[in-house]
Amino acid sequence: MQFLVLMIIKTNYLFMKLIALYSIFFLFCLNFTISAQTSELPWNFSINANTISLQGKGTDSGFNIGAPVFVLSRKVLGGLSFGSQYALGQVDNFQQSYNYSSWDGFLKLNLSEGRISTYLIGGYGFSQFADGIQREGVFPSTETSRTLFGGVGVNYNLNSHFALNLQVAYRDMDETNGFNHLQNFIGLGYNFGSKDTDKDGVPDKNDQCPAVPGPKEYNGCPDTDGDTVIDKEDKCPDIYGLPELMGCNDTDGDGVLDHEDICPELMGKVEMKGCPDTDGDGLSDRLDSCIDQAGPKENKGCPWPDSDGDGIIDPEDKCKDEAGPLENDGCPLLSEEIMQTLNEFGSRINFAADSYEIFGAKTREHLLKIKDLLESNPHGVLLIEGYASEEGEQDYNLELSVNRALAVRQFLIGIGVNPSRLEVQGLGTSDPIGDNSRPEGRAINRRVQFKTKKN
């Protein structure tokens, strides 16, 4: 108890004298930010000035200032640190002057954290009051004594690396050739440790973004837009967004994030990059010229026209300006009445055996009538079918039937019929209309016959 009372009395006396020097350090570093010795920066090195005040009977408890004091410590667990310190100074005791030095090991326990943090310190070491006189003792220099010490201190943390330090300790020497004394430090400490490439206060070993500075609460990664989603996980790092949407927004609520949504203010479909398709034709409204009518992409989303109104759209209608049935691809057919008339004339167009030559005035007259009939009925394509009797080989007869149909076509073209309305087909000896065993039957089988062309 006597020791504690003595320590408090001396501390009050010394503190008033040290506060002026402490204030100078404080004003010099006032613009720094808060930090402390941490697990990321476990090492601390400080340079201090020190004061020494002798205690006990036969001493002058004056105020002796010394320097420098070097302190090196390392945080090991929680608020506990261990370290070593070395101090030099000049001490006067009445008329006697001593060169002072001390070298100790210590344990330090932090009691609080924040801008201002306090701690307890205790340790064991050696103290020397050298006056140049040799004496008998345990050590080669009997001016050195084993020392047990304990004290309190306070740090004013300036930033992640620097802190001002004020410490008061009582040192108890266990040999006769020294003095128990109060030792007080004031100085500037530097925290260091792991490599910190981006200088953000988070060491590289714990920094998830070691090349880019970021706050500690995000493990050293930046959050540019401040939406609590770090940039490397933020799909929209420059736009404040929702964490559940990985830092992005979905203004229209269609499931397509705004930065990927071509129509961010209109609810649309994912497959159309967030744009609507009102008529459901697979073409988004922004590209659809007929948003209320389904139509193919090839026609900009509009239905194809049916110019002739025959129920067949123009792209599929081979005669889009003339109505015709689906089975004829939209082209008109020659009527049954016309076909009957044509075939009446066709039944009178016959050929000599083994020949495809058109001969006889009557045959030419019939073909002229066919031309007139086609001109008076401008719609439809006429299919000219050629036939043969059974004389000769089948391949030859087939070729002969084709040539007979071609001969009729060529004649009609020659007298002015549009070639596009005439097509031919050779059918050989098929579908005979006369008895091939009789000459008169074979004669009527060597003929042409007309049909309406269906596509």
Describe this structure in words.
With 455 residues, the chain is α+β, with helices and mostly antiparallel strands. Among the domains are: 2-192, Porin (Beta Barrel), CATH 2.40.160.20; 336-452, 60s Ribosomal Protein L30, Chain: A. The protein contains five helices and eleven strands. It has helices spanning 2-28, 336-346, 361-376, 394-414, 439-445; strands at residues 43-54, 64-77, 80-93, 96-110, 116-130, 144-157, 162-173, 181-192, 382-386, 422-426, 448-452. α2 packs antiparallel against α3. The longest helix has 27 residues, at 2-28. It is rod-shaped, with a radius of gyration of 57 Å. 30% of the residues are buried. Residues 1-35 have low confidence and may be disordered.
Based on CA atoms alone, the radius of gyration comes out at 57 Å
Unreliably modeled segments: 1-35
State the helix count: 5
Order of helices and strands: HEEEEEEEEHHEHEHE
| Largest sheet descriptor | 8 strands, antiparallel, barrel
- Say how many strands there are: 11
Per CATH, the class of the domain at 2-192 reads: Mainly Beta
